[in-house]
Specification:
Chain lengths: 443, 211
């Protein structure tokens, strides 16, 4: 027994901001819940009293202009049917005092609020005194076009979600199912063909034997060969067979022993289960979030860093489940729990470089310009991260021998490159600037 | 003789079979040979061994009477025995360029937008650096062209179209303040992006808007 099965744990320190964040988020959530009910209610309470919407455009040109204006200017804070930063805009043409009032409010909301307008002030208070950005450049016509677009959107039946969801699962099913099914079919087909061939061969030999036995002009020797029966025990004891068996077994055992001896101390392929089922494939792959966004230390420090939950909350304050599912995902809930209880998330460390070797991320990534994937593999395609590289000394040295130093535009290397070119025809490699010195990594 | 030969074979097989357990994979970390120098004695960030019996065997060679295994590496004085220390109250980080933490509070966007000036020179280097940083920190929501067309913008509500009319005239100070503290549904990014980098991003966003 050697004491080597250790799980070394990664601990995250919380930034001081996390509690602040939490407070802010819970407030925003509450506000969101309250306000959706309020806006829904107000739609019913104020039925087209002003009749101001009669002037809204219905022709396609003006509505498409309104759509592009809405996407460019309003989408950030408003949705048609749901509350976002600002209220849901459906029915705004009915509930606001007048179209002119809307135009004034869009042009400069703080002026309308300051004028003592009741409706504007109520709105201002209802939304925690958040002021709407002023859009003085939008003309009255443009604003009316936007309203036309909103009205058209509001009257559309809510049917958008279902088909995309169905398509998503269909694609997923196809992606998983087809290749293995094909593979199975091919294998079964092959087996059937082989069995058929065997049967045919046996048939041929029996027919041949029968035919040869009927021949009268066969001499004794040939007749013996034709009627010789296959004796298993004799074949097993024959020298060539024994030699073959011994040779193959020894070769296999030898290979297994050597392979496994080389695997001692190498953790390539280690893929432990993490406390949160975080998928790099989803985050770095599908959503194309840069590695640097979460691993903030990678260019400035020895360690790449594991993000603290406040970085998770940059998105997960709003994104509470996998796309298309309602409620809070149990995995995302773990982030909220960690923040609420001020408790670190104990990620399991995967890359355990021995303490006797020094490695610095910023030196390789920022200075050397090496891609993350060079050592960590295609992390953006990994559901569960595993150790991609050997992380042995031979692996390090190999790369230091092969990699050119990026000397372009770096005065520091000018003299070195000159001296190197006097002695060698090859480009300046990492080994030429001390990449193989023992004390670079071991001290 | 024959039996002896069989035993030799069997033992070879046994060695082979025993060795297959050495390779790592899945939950298995694999076998380490004499890992006496593998585990740091000093506290390391992002690493902690809470098992007090870890390295008992190595302890036999080098007994120092500390009553736990040689590899045990946790700080009992910190919360959750973390090796990383939470900074004392009221200390502030200071960057190598001398930037002190940003002190304008979140609700004073107007003040920041009016008074803050970028300390960076108007050079192409700053702009190129800004593009790199924008692609790292902003791209997945705001999109490469700033039109809120990044892949995350489909899932996250309220991503600002930086080229929209409302943002055309904002100052670099405004952008700096918003990156630091967030605005609307955007969360604060001050803990991730260094002040100097925020100014670079602000410069690049202004360039995106003027295209």
């Amino acid at each position: 027994m050697t004491p080597n099965k250790l799980l070394t744990r990664v601990f995250l320190a919380f930034t001081l901001a996390s509690s602040l964040l939490l407070f802010h988020n819970s407030q925003a959530q509450e506000a969101a819940q309250q306000d959706t009910t309020v806006t829904e209610g107000s739609n019913d309470e104020q039925p087209a009293a002003q009749g101001a919407d009669s002037g809204l455009p219905t022709d396609a040109d003006r509505i498409s202009e309104g759509q592009s204006l809405f996407n460019a200017n309003c989408k950030t804070c408003h949705k048609v049917k749901e509350k976002l930063v600002g209220p849901a805009l459906q029915g705004v043409y009915d509930r606001a005092p007048s179209i002119d009032w809307i135009v004034d409010f869009v042009h400069n909301s703080s002026k309308v609020i300051a004028s003592g307008d009741d409706y504007a002030n109520n709105l201002y208070q209802e939304y925690n005194q958040t002021q709407m950005t002023a859009f003085p450049t939008l003309s009255k016509d443009q604003i009316i076009n936007i309203l036309g677009y909103i009205k058209q959107e509001a009257e559309k039946a809510p049917e958008v979600v279902a088909p995309t969801e169905g398509a998503g699962t269909a694609v997923q099913g196809a992606g998983d199912g087809v290749p293995t099914e094909y593979l199975n079919a091919i294998m079964i087909g092959l087996v059937i063909v082989l069995v058929l061939i065997l049967v045919v061969l046996i048939l041929i030999t029996t027919v041949l034997r029968k035919y040869l036995n009927q021949q009268k002009d066969l001499d004794e020797e040939d007749r013996e060969i034709v009627n010789a029966s296959f004796r298993l025990d004799a074949a097993l004891k024959s020298k060539p067979f024994l030699f073959l068996v011994v040779f193959i077994t020894t070769a296999i055992v030898f290979k297994v022993v050597i392979n496994n001896l080389y695997a001692v101390g190498v953790q390539q392929g280690y893929a432990p289960k993490q406390p949160i089922a975080f998928s790099h494939k989803l985050h770095a792959g599908e959503n194309d979030i840069d590695c640097n966004y979460c691993h903030t230390g990678v260019r400035i420090s020895k360690n790449a860093n594991i993000p603290s939950p406040n970085i998770c909350m940059n998105c997960h304050s709003m994104i509470k489940n996998v796309a298309g599912q309602s409620g809070v995902s149990p995995e995302i809930q773990k982030i909220y729990d960690a923040i609420e209880n001020d408790r670190p998330i104990e990620w399991v460390r995967i890359h355990n470089l021995p303490d006797l070797a020094y490695f610095n991320h910023s030196q390789h990534v920022e200075v050397g310009g090496i891609e993350c994937q060079t050592c960590h593999g295609e992390v953006q395609e990994m559901e569960v991260v595993r150790q991609h590289s050997l992380l042995t000394m031979g692996w390090c040295i190999d790369c230091h021998r092969k990699t050119d130093v990026n000397t372009k535009g770096n005065e520091y290397y000018d003299n070195l490159v000159e001296l190197h070119e006097e002695q060698s025809n090859e480009a300046l490699k990492v080994e030429d600037i001390g990449g193989l010195e023992c004390s670079k990594c071991h001290y | 003789m024959n039996i002896y030969k069989h035993i030799k074979f069997a033992s070879l097989f046994a060695v082979g079979a025993a060795l297959t357990a050495c390779g790592a994979g899945g939950e298995n970390q694999g076998l380490e040979y004499a890992p006496n120098m593998y585990h740091s004695v000093a506290y390391e960030p992002l690493k902690q061994i809470t098992d007090e019996s870890a390295g008992n065997m190595a302890e036999l060679l080098d007994s120092n009477g500390d009553n736990h295994g040689e590899y045990y590496n946790s700080n009992p004085l910190n919360p959750y025995r973390m090796t990383m220390r939470v900074p004392p109250a009221n200390v502030v980080p200071r960057s190598d360029k001398g930037y002190l933490p940003y002190r304008i509070p979140k609700d004073s966007l107007d003040l920041a937008a009016r008074t803050l000036k970028s300390p960076l020179p108007k050079t192409d280097d700053v702009l190129a650096g800004g593009k790199l940083l924008y692609d790292r920190y902003c791209d997945h929501c705001h999109g490469g062209s700033g039109q809120a067309d990044g892949p995350v913008a489909d899932k996250y509500p309220g991503v600002a179209n930086l080229t929209g009319a409302a943002y055309q005239n904002i100052s670099e100070g405004h952008i700096f303040h918003v990156i630091t503290w967030g605005k609307g549904l955007m969360q604060p990014h001050g803990s991730q992006v260094k002040p100097e980098d925020r100014w670079k991003i602000a410069r690049y966003v202004k360039k995106l808007q003027n295209q």
